[in-house]
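Supplementary Note 3. Input sequence used for the single-chain structure prediction.
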Amino acid sequence: MLARTRDNVYIDQELQVIRLGNKKLRRRLNDIEEAKTFMRTVLIAAIVYEAIKHNKYPTIRDVFYDAKHTIPGTDIDTVNDQAESDNIIEDLEVLLGTSREEMGLQTDVKCKVVGLMRVRSGRDVIDCSRQGEGGAYTPPSNVDRLEFLEVNADYILVVEKDAVFNTLNIERYWEKNRCILITAGGQPDRPARRLVKRLNEELGLPVYVLTDADPYGFYIYSVYRIGSITLSHESVRLACPKARFIGVTVSDIYDYKLSKNVIIKAKEADIKRAKELKSYPWFQSPAWQRELDLFLERKEKAEIEALSSKSLGFLEDKYLPEKIKSGHFIV
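The predicted structure, written as discrete structure tokens, is reproduced below.
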């Protein structure tokens, strides 16, 4: 099977996404650990097959518990923790050329969406602009089942942080600025990534990503735009190469003259992460290299909320509209 390892990924120059390479793994059944992995693969494949056969939709946690037992005549457990069964599910995705969503497996969905859009999910029609004050729609694990009925938005704004999303939602930023707001509350889950991809690809909506001004925020943007090494086998389906980074940039900290009281000193982990990003092929544009160099020089970062030190409402009333109007973003 194809190796899901860091040294077996590459940038597809045509599609502009991270993809899994052609390096293969050979499993030797005379090796106890590889024999265990083979056993788990067969076991979990059988569980998934039975679920599909009987029209069931188990969670990946259900699969773990269904697979977990002690092998008769031994003291060996089939799986020790969910990370092992999750890893096998990803192996099956690669082996079968499908996704866990298409296999009917369910997961916790962090994605939330609100804005000028109506969708059909099964027999229900959901108006994403009528979710109650501060409310938002949570899509299904398999976003491909959604049908876009009516979309009156001009663009998509992806927000890293749940709290910032909530503020923009309550302020009805999406209504005032004719857009769709999406968040996954940090590292993006598959439904958030797939929804962003579909809205951009099928409807041509521009995508802007808003994160903290730090290397971890920059990485979150890159996952939306180009994919991740871990899920490189899913990048074609999940990554959105046309996504643009609207901010907050390191340059913004100084261009907007943020008070020193709201600027945070970078930690060693931040510095290490920034150096890693500088080496990634997808951060080699002059604009990104300038931002990362500035971060490493000043060793300072800022949260999205630091913009509120300018004035309450500065983010939604001035920063975002001006950035979008001027086209001041990074690729």
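The mean pLDDT is 91. The chain has two domains: 31-96, 112-326.
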